[in-house]
Structure formats: structure tokens, C-alpha cells
Predict the structure.
Amino acid sequence: MPCYLDFMCVFGLSKSARELRFSGFRAQVLLKDPSPDSAIPDLGRSGRHFQMCYNLKGIARIPNGKSMLWSIHQAAIYHQFDIEKGTTLWIVTKGNLDIKDRIKTLTGKDGRAEDKAFDTLEQCLKSSLAVHLLLCHWSTEDWRWYVQFLEDKIDDETEIAVLGPRGIGEAVRIYTSADVQKLQNYQDKTNEIIMILEANNDVLASLRDFYKAMTKDTAFTLGNACCEDLALFAKLVDEMKQDSAMHVSRARLLVQITSDRKNLVS
């Protein structure tokens, strides 16, 4: 899919994080009457396949001495599945080997048998869904703790302004423009969380809807045989979307709190 190049371009050198705003899901389906050129028997390709590409963003905690740094990571994913041969192709572009290591664990000796079985077409499809779920889970984990980190930072910066000195000898703080700028930075980061999680949720919804639509396609011969697996896949994706939506609500509240406290200290 040529459009996968668009997803890879976000990894180019940039002075800003504007590419965090780019997100999407693209898919192509060719289940019947493939062209002769698309069939490559030696590679296990019948020409009857579907393919997709999408990107997701995750948050990572990076130890920095006694403190903790947070870094937003992107991943661009390409996937192709041959419905006649069961062969799959994955291309994952990311700035480190984190996802590669997770997939190796998923399909390694300690992984679940059903996540690494490829003896039948049904098993091949189920194993590919397991990789999708791994990627979706990666994009949703640790956001809770990042929001909490920002909540704690904002509380620490504005506690005196909100509560005031509560006794003789308690500290009094004079806020400056630098303090307001620091709060603005935290507010910007919180708005960034909202943008990213909403974009991730749109991608997860598109991924779920793609497989739902496939079950209604009469040319998709695995639809009936794998209907329970596909229903479970949709359910698990929905649960991850709900978790992200909760973090978005929490972040929206934090944006409002930060705005009120900027007014209080300025």
C-alpha cells in the first residue's frame, strides 16, 4: 500500500512534535477475481487478501535519576492477510525495538498456543488478531499514570495559591510569570493527551469496524468459522476504547482545573 509511506514519514527529523497530530487507518480488500500478477505461489500468495495500515501512539516512562521522564512514541503498522493461504505480512515502524520484543514474547515459547498457531486458516487469522490486540494494548497502557503525574505536578505548583498558609510560620509563595508559563506547559501537555487518545480511539474503532464488515462479506470464507473470535476481538477493542475515553474525561477536567489555577496565580 503506497499510503503506508505517509505513516512512515512521521519518523523524519523534525524540530517540533506536530506529526503527533497525524493519525489514520487505511484498508484495501481483494477477496475475489484477483489479477494474475497478484498471485505469487512461491511466497504463499493467492492474490485474495486484505491489507491495512494505521498508526498508534503510546506513552513511555523513562527513569531519570530520582525523577521520571515521559516520552510519546509512535508506531506505524502495515498488515496483509491472504484468506486462501493464511500467510501474513507485518511491517512495524517504530523508534525502538519495544514492539518487536513484545511480539517475540507473544509468539515465543512462553506465549499462548492459540496466539502462535498457523496450521489452519482459522488459526492464522486468530494469531493475526492477537498481534492487533497487542498493538492496541500498547497504545492504551500507562496513560493513566501520565495523567496522574501531571495532576500531581499541577497540585504541587498551586497548593499554596489554592489553600493558602494554614498556620503561623507556614510558607508564603509569590507567583511569577515563570510559574504561569510552567502551568501553561502542563496544560498544553494535557491537551496533547486528549488529542492523542481521541485519535487512537478513532483508529481502534476503524480496526474493529473493518473486521465487523469483513464478517458480512460473502467472499470472506473465514467469517463463519471465526465469528466467535472476531466478536471477542471487537469486545476487547471496545474495552480498551472505554479505558481511553475515561482518561480523556479525566484529562479534560485537568485542563479546566489548570486554567482556573492559572487565573488564580496570575
